Amino acid sequence: MGGRSRRNTRPGFAIRVMWPFAKAVAERQPVALPLFPLSTVLFPGGLLPLKIFEQRYIAMAKACIRDGSAFGVCLITRGEEVALTRGATPEFANVGTCARIVDFDMPQVGILQVATRGEARFQVQGHAVTASGLIQGDVIALVPEPPLPLAEEYAPLAKLLELVASRVGPQNFPAERDFGAASWVGYRLAEILPLPLSIKQSMLEINDAEVRLKVLRQFLSQQGLI
Predict the structure, then answer these.
(1) Residue 77 shares a structural domain with residue 106
(2) Same domain assignment for residues 118 and 22
(3) In terms of domains, do 11 and 115 share one?
């Protein structure tokens, strides 16, 4: 498979091709989506660099680059990222996030490094494993949570996030920033805080920005960070 990569890739690459998932969000129709189970949670608007070396996922990524399409990232709940036996697949959460490749590089034969950005969330209705070992999901797009301005009581969370953003560097934090949006602040905090993966997954599945912020504020208060 591969793992998260910190290597910078070419900044000029971008894909703007639309695909059927955008229509599915409005119509709530199932669509086929290749799935990439990982030991991480990707949030809408988040960045996820990957170093891919398993052939099934290299082929998937190349197809996404060629077609301007996305793939789905789901948290592994049991099993491993790298298949220990041929055809083995891990168990994974049924709510994930679409990942779109925004940059890529192949530093050597057999290794593909990609920079991805999280987009819409989805729910897996079913899946099948192809002959190559790739998991093909049948997914339904989840309706985006209602946009809300960040309430004044959560201003300390936004200030903490701004501090973190200034320290991690622009290559590790989304260029498009909205510290006044409740969903955006909640997603960014959930992805950078040292929370158990099960909690991060619950933060992804919550469809209420205020509830997410309440949980995060409680955690930060317990840790003495706000």
Answers:
(1) yes
(2) yes
(3) yes
CA distance 162 to 177: 10
Position 42 confidence tier, pLDDT thresholds 50, 70, 90: very high
For residue 2, what pLDDT band results from cuts at 50, 70 and 90? Answer: low
Residue 27 has a pLDDT of 56
Which residue range(s) make up the domain with 46? 2-141
| Three-class DSSP labels, the chain | CEEECCCCCCCCCCCCCCCCHHHHHHHCCCEEEEEEEECCCCCCCCEEEEEECCHHHHHHHHHHHHHCCCEEEEEEEECCCCCCCCCCCCEECCEEEEEEEEEEEEEECCEEEEEEEEEEEEEEEEEEECCCCCEEEEEEECCCCCCCECCHHHHHHHHHHHHHHHHHCHHHCCCCCCCCEHHHHHHHHHHHCCCCHHHHHHHHHCCCHHHHHHHHHHHHHHCCCC
Q: Global pTM?
A: 0.84
Residue 186 has pLDDT above 90, yes or no: yes
Residue-wise pLDDT for 119-171, tens only, equals 999 999 999 999 989 999 999 999 999 999 999 999 999 999 999 988 887 77
* 70 found inside a domain: yes
For 182, half-sphere exposure in the C-beta direction (CA atoms, 13 angstrom radius) is 22
Residues 127 and 168 in one domain: no
